[in-house]
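Q: What would this chain look like folded?
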Amino acid sequence: MAKKSKKQGGGGTPATVALTAAGTEFTVHAYEHDPASASYGEEAAEALGVSPERVFKTLVADVDGELTVAVVPVAGQLDLKALATAVGGKRAVMADPAAAERTTGYVRGGISPLGQRKRLRTVLDASASAHATICISAGRRGLEVELAPSDLAALTGAVVAPIGRA
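A: My prediction, written as structure tokens:
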């Protein structure tokens, strides 16, 4: 499948700036965010008409005292034990939301694995490899970027491992 073309509509975010600077091909998808939505990721999948298996959420966890990014399909959940194992850790818990926002420079529901204020260790769920492209947060609620999973892994230095569960 051919890669999508670069599009910058709606102004750049640190994530789209990072993608552009790296010369990575991507497509920006904007939609009207509903503040009453129960799930940012499921809202994105529905608004974009994309299967929830292809829309990935960015979660920040604390693995043995170190903040770590987990990128998993919105259709499932993060397996904290598998995340810890993927990075050679012993124990993982979800990070304090304020610490995640402060460290990444993004707000909850808009945290992107790209263009973070402080680059964090990243693990991409292995299921991403089954898709030519996936959608991830572009750095704000109501904005997603579509790109090849291999490009996401390369740009973030991600470990690819089975960290999601249905």
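The helical segments are 14-22, 40-48, 80-86, 97-104, 149-156.
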